[in-house]
Amino acid sequence: MTAGTGVLTGWSISHSNADIDTIEVACSRSDAEIIESVLDQSAVTEALCLQTCNRIETYVVTDSPATGRAALETVRPDVPDSAVRELDHEGSLRHLMRVACGLESLVLGEDQILGQLRDAYLTARSMDAVGPVLETGLTKAIHVGERARTETTINEGVVSLGSAAVKLADRETELATATAMVVGAGEMGTIAASALAPDVDRLIVANRTTEHAEHVVDALDGACAVGLDSLSGTIADCDIVVSATGSDHSIIDRSTVNASDGPTLLVDIAQPRDIDPAVGSLSDVELYDLDALESITAETTATRRVAAQQVEEIIDEAIDRLLTQYKRKQADEVIAAMYEGAERIKQQELQTALSRLDAKDELTAEQRETVESLADALVGQLLAVPTKSLRDAAERDDWSTINTALQLFDPDFEDQPTLSDQSPQYPSPNTKSTAENTEITGSDTADDD
């Protein structure tokens, strides 16, 4: 595999196809440990691992999809097959863009994931695990994620009960000085905790299984985890409680909340209820339920869905250009070899011609420069059309044309493996390249998405 080539292969385990228990099992190793493990395999040239409280994803760059899948199998967690989404080259690139844009998040369009993807990228780079393929793909994904948030309304408003609960709390309480507790480490609890963490003074996540709560707080600065067995003692120190467990009965009642020391604001987003309605009758306690929250979410849900369609269009355009860019890089390596072969022939013939001319009458420096410029111009003009044809052939995955061209310009190429054996076959993009530049230098410059 030559520099700059390779195919991306990945797998993803996330909230969309796995429950929290499965994700917890999958996230038993650090990003660095997983990257180090796959890089130990000689077939892997680049690697990335992305972990959040709701996902773990691993990607490798190898010479073929089959090699990539085999490498990833060595770090695949012991979870059901149904929980693992396998991604090919184009699928990996598209998925990374969707993740960066927040289209794969629990809360459509949320912002936190973009920073988490940047952190994963920097971790991989610090381990020398990012090469030409991932560098191009990740920087493009991050750029598209930024475009999604500046060019659409994908991250505006409130679309989940968890974030709606936080918005309601913000109306009723001074968050900056508040101690808040989220009860439950499932989907809604995780959303509420993520939304509260940046704004409150102190955050506690309580859950029946403490390990699940710890999994959530690992991604939040300064938060701590407790079990439900300490709920009564902890709740007395809280100003805000958001409860979102999957319990089939109330877990907070009048005896749990001390009216004199307890929280002033409780928000119940569980179904069935987590908080006994009688708690609302306590003095200095305000209790809100689902009915109070639904009006907050309804207004922006439709807006974000429209924005999501706009984001999908941005991603489609970016994917087409990115795949073309990868293929142009491969073609340029072939074209460089073609130019090198032509340059060798040119130098041989040029020296022969100059020697003959010098034998008759010594050439001046200006005359020698004229002859050399003529030779350069002839090579450039003769190879201009083949250069464009080879780039177009690469975009069509027409490696037989490229192999033929190499045989014409490099007599030794017949003894080498064909390019189709060495180069990965990328899916053809939906758009055609409009590049007309026939120079080698700068031909693979990234587009301005």
Comma- or semicolon-separated keywords:
449 residues, alpha/beta, Rossmann fold, six-stranded parallel beta sheet, four-stranded antiparallel beta sheet, 14 helices, 10 strands, 50% helix, disordered C terminus
Explain what you see.
- Substrate binds at residues 52-55, 105, 110-112, 116.
- The protein is of the alpha/beta class and 449 residues long.
- Among the domains are: 7-157 and 303-322, Beta Polymerase, domain 2 (2-Layer Sandwich), CATH 3.30.460.30; 161-291, 3-Layer(aba) Sandwich (Rossmann fold), CATH 3.40.50.
- The protein contains 14 helices and ten strands.
- Helix 9 links the parallel strand 6 (202-207) and strand 7 (224-227).
- Helix 4 (89-101) crosses helix 11 and helix 12 (365-395) runs antiparallel to helix 13 (399-409).
- The protein is elongated and about 110 Å long.
- The two termini are 29 Å apart.
- Residues 413-449 have low confidence and may be disordered.
Report the sheet-strand fraction: 5-15%
Topology order in helix (H) and strand (E) letters: EHHEEHEHHHHEHEHEHEEEHHHH
Calculate the mean pLDDT score and round it: 84
Runs in which pLDDT lies below 50 for 5 or more consecutive residues are 413-449
The number of helices is 14
Class of secondary structure makeup: alpha/beta
From the spread of the alpha carbons, the general shape counts as: elongated
The residue fraction in helices comes out at: 40-55%
Corresponding CATH architecture of the domain at 7-157 and 303-322: 2-Layer Sandwich
Radius of gyration: 30 Å
The CATH class of the domain at 7-157 and 303-322, by name, is: Alpha Beta
What does the main sheet amount to?
6 strands, parallel
